[in-house]
Amino acid sequence: MDATxxxxxxxxxxxxxxxxxVNALLSGLPDLTLSFAxxxxxxDVRFHPCVRFRPWEANQILSFVPxxxxxxxxxxxxxxxxxxxxxxxxxLTSSAGTCRISVMxxxxxxxxxTIDSITLQFQLPSCVLSADLSSNHGTxxxxxxxxxxxxxxxxxxxKAPALTGTMVLEAGIGLP
Length: 176
Description:
The chain has two domains: about 15-80, Immunoglobulin-like (Sandwich), CATH 2.60.40; about 85-170, Immunoglobulin-like. About 5% of the residues lie in helices and about 55% in strands. The chain is built from one helix and 13 strands. A hairpin with a 2-residue loop joins strand 7 and strand 8. InterPro entries: Adaptor_comp_med_subunit, AP2_Mu_C_sf, Clathrin_mu, MHD. Keywords: Membrane, Protein transport, Transport. This is MHD domain-containing protein.
Protein backbone atom coordinates (compact mmCIF):
# COMPACT_ATOMS: atom_id res chain seq x y z
CA MET A 1 0.00 0.00 0.00
CA ASP A 2 1.22 3.49 -0.83
CA ALA A 3 -0.56 6.27 1.01
CA THR A 4 -0.03 10.00 1.42
CA UNK A 5 -1.29 11.52 4.66
CA UNK A 6 -1.05 15.26 5.36
CA UNK A 7 0.21 16.81 8.61
CA UNK A 8 -3.32 16.75 10.06
CA UNK A 9 -3.53 12.97 9.58
CA UNK A 10 -5.99 13.30 6.66
CA UNK A 11 -5.63 10.80 3.81
CA UNK A 12 -4.64 12.55 0.56
CA UNK A 13 -3.99 9.53 -1.69
CA UNK A 14 -4.01 5.77 -1.17
CA UNK A 15 -3.37 2.82 -3.48
CA UNK A 16 -2.95 -0.85 -2.69
CA UNK A 17 -0.78 -3.14 -4.78
CA UNK A 18 -1.67 -6.77 -4.12
CA UNK A 19 -1.41 -10.26 -5.42
CA UNK A 20 -3.07 -13.62 -4.89
CA UNK A 21 -0.51 -16.38 -4.26
CA VAL A 22 -1.53 -20.04 -4.61
CA ASN A 23 0.12 -23.23 -3.45
CA ALA A 24 -1.79 -25.95 -5.31
CA LEU A 25 -1.33 -29.46 -3.95
CA LEU A 26 -4.43 -30.98 -5.54
CA SER A 27 -4.49 -34.19 -7.55
CA GLY A 28 -6.06 -34.47 -10.97
CA LEU A 29 -7.28 -31.44 -12.87
CA PRO A 30 -9.48 -29.50 -10.41
CA ASP A 31 -11.54 -26.72 -11.93
CA LEU A 32 -11.55 -23.90 -9.36
CA THR A 33 -13.58 -20.73 -9.07
CA LEU A 34 -12.69 -17.70 -6.96
CA SER A 35 -14.99 -14.75 -6.45
CA PHE A 36 -14.44 -11.45 -4.66
CA ALA A 37 -16.87 -9.54 -2.44
CA UNK A 38 -16.23 -6.30 -4.35
CA UNK A 39 -14.34 -7.00 -7.60
CA UNK A 40 -15.18 -3.60 -9.10
CA UNK A 41 -12.46 -1.94 -6.98
CA UNK A 42 -9.70 -4.03 -8.64
CA UNK A 43 -7.70 -2.20 -11.33
CA ASP A 44 -4.76 -3.16 -13.51
CA VAL A 45 -5.36 -6.89 -13.00
CA ARG A 46 -2.85 -9.34 -14.43
CA PHE A 47 -3.52 -13.06 -14.50
CA HIS A 48 -1.52 -16.27 -14.57
CA PRO A 49 -1.95 -18.05 -17.94
CA CYS A 50 -4.12 -20.73 -16.25
CA VAL A 51 -6.94 -18.18 -15.65
CA ARG A 52 -9.78 -18.21 -18.16
CA PHE A 53 -10.33 -14.62 -19.18
CA ARG A 54 -13.94 -14.90 -20.38
CA PRO A 55 -15.53 -15.58 -16.92
CA TRP A 56 -13.59 -12.64 -15.49
CA GLU A 57 -14.67 -10.38 -18.31
CA ALA A 58 -18.34 -11.43 -18.02
CA ASN A 59 -18.84 -11.79 -14.23
CA GLN A 60 -15.52 -10.83 -12.60
CA ILE A 61 -15.04 -14.40 -11.36
CA LEU A 62 -11.71 -16.21 -11.57
CA SER A 63 -12.02 -19.64 -13.16
CA PHE A 64 -8.87 -21.72 -13.52
CA VAL A 65 -7.18 -25.12 -13.41
CA PRO A 66 -4.13 -24.53 -11.23
CA UNK A 67 -0.69 -25.88 -12.06
CA UNK A 68 1.04 -27.88 -9.33
CA UNK A 69 2.97 -25.95 -6.70
CA UNK A 70 3.30 -22.28 -5.89
CA UNK A 71 2.42 -19.54 -8.36
CA UNK A 72 1.02 -16.01 -8.55
CA UNK A 73 -2.61 -16.33 -9.66
CA UNK A 74 -3.11 -12.60 -10.14
CA UNK A 75 -1.85 -9.15 -9.27
CA UNK A 76 -3.97 -6.03 -8.93
CA UNK A 77 -4.16 -2.43 -7.80
CA UNK A 78 -6.89 -0.71 -5.78
CA UNK A 79 -7.09 3.07 -6.24
CA UNK A 80 -8.89 5.91 -4.49
CA UNK A 81 -9.36 4.30 -1.09
CA UNK A 82 -11.16 6.43 1.46
CA UNK A 83 -9.28 5.05 4.49
CA UNK A 84 -6.24 2.98 5.36
CA UNK A 85 -5.94 -0.04 7.66
CA UNK A 86 -3.55 2.00 9.82
CA UNK A 87 -3.78 5.43 11.40
CA UNK A 88 -0.94 7.93 11.56
CA UNK A 89 -1.08 10.73 14.14
CA UNK A 90 1.67 13.32 13.63
CA UNK A 91 2.20 16.14 16.13
CA LEU A 92 4.63 19.05 15.75
CA THR A 93 5.40 21.68 18.39
CA SER A 94 7.90 24.42 17.51
CA SER A 95 9.51 27.09 19.65
CA ALA A 96 12.74 29.12 19.62
CA GLY A 97 14.53 27.41 16.74
CA THR A 98 13.54 23.86 17.64
CA CYS A 99 10.65 21.61 16.85
CA ARG A 100 9.48 18.55 18.75
CA ILE A 101 7.97 15.80 16.63
CA SER A 102 5.83 12.87 17.67
CA VAL A 103 4.25 10.34 15.31
CA MET A 104 2.01 7.50 16.52
CA UNK A 105 0.99 4.58 14.27
CA UNK A 106 -1.62 1.91 14.95
CA UNK A 107 -4.10 -0.49 13.42
CA UNK A 108 -7.46 1.06 12.62
CA UNK A 109 -10.72 -0.70 13.64
CA UNK A 110 -9.26 -4.14 14.45
CA UNK A 111 -6.29 -4.10 16.87
CA UNK A 112 -6.07 -7.91 16.60
CA UNK A 113 -5.03 -7.72 12.94
CA THR A 114 -1.40 -8.05 11.93
CA ILE A 115 0.36 -6.09 9.22
CA ASP A 116 3.66 -7.68 8.24
CA SER A 117 5.55 -4.63 7.01
CA ILE A 118 4.90 -0.99 7.82
CA THR A 119 7.23 1.73 6.52
CA LEU A 120 6.58 5.46 6.80
CA GLN A 121 8.48 7.97 4.69
CA PHE A 122 8.30 11.72 5.06
CA GLN A 123 10.29 14.68 3.84
CA LEU A 124 11.76 16.98 6.47
CA PRO A 125 11.31 20.67 5.56
CA SER A 126 14.31 22.51 4.06
CA CYS A 127 14.48 24.77 7.15
CA VAL A 128 15.54 21.76 9.29
CA LEU A 129 19.28 21.93 10.00
CA SER A 130 19.48 18.69 11.98
CA ALA A 131 17.17 16.09 13.43
CA ASP A 132 17.51 13.61 16.28
CA LEU A 133 14.71 11.05 15.83
CA SER A 134 14.18 7.68 17.50
CA SER A 135 11.41 5.12 17.78
CA ASN A 136 10.20 2.58 20.30
CA HIS A 137 9.87 0.01 17.50
CA GLY A 138 11.81 -0.40 14.26
CA THR A 139 14.54 1.79 12.79
CA UNK A 140 14.69 5.44 11.71
CA UNK A 141 17.01 6.65 8.92
CA UNK A 142 17.45 10.20 7.64
CA UNK A 143 19.11 10.57 4.25
CA UNK A 144 21.17 13.59 3.16
CA UNK A 145 18.21 14.84 1.09
CA UNK A 146 16.23 15.04 4.39
CA UNK A 147 14.00 12.08 3.51
CA UNK A 148 13.13 10.23 6.71
CA UNK A 149 12.30 6.52 6.56
CA UNK A 150 10.80 4.80 9.60
CA UNK A 151 10.80 1.03 9.09
CA UNK A 152 8.46 -0.43 11.69
CA UNK A 153 8.18 -3.93 10.26
CA UNK A 154 5.42 -6.06 11.79
CA UNK A 155 3.10 -4.07 14.03
CA UNK A 156 3.65 -4.96 17.70
CA UNK A 157 0.63 -6.18 19.65
CA UNK A 158 1.72 -4.82 23.04
CA LYS A 159 2.25 -1.12 22.20
CA ALA A 160 1.64 1.39 19.44
CA PRO A 161 4.80 2.31 17.51
CA ALA A 162 5.92 5.87 18.22
CA LEU A 163 8.57 8.07 16.65
CA THR A 164 9.76 11.04 18.71
CA GLY A 165 12.53 13.57 18.47
CA THR A 166 13.77 17.10 18.09
CA MET A 167 14.64 19.08 14.99
CA VAL A 168 16.85 22.17 14.92
CA LEU A 169 15.49 24.88 12.61
CA GLU A 170 17.21 27.70 10.74
CA ALA A 171 17.27 30.90 12.79
CA GLY A 172 14.16 33.02 12.31
CA ILE A 173 12.37 30.44 10.18
CA GLY A 174 9.41 28.40 11.38
CA LEU A 175 7.95 25.27 9.91
CA PRO A 176 5.96 25.72 6.69
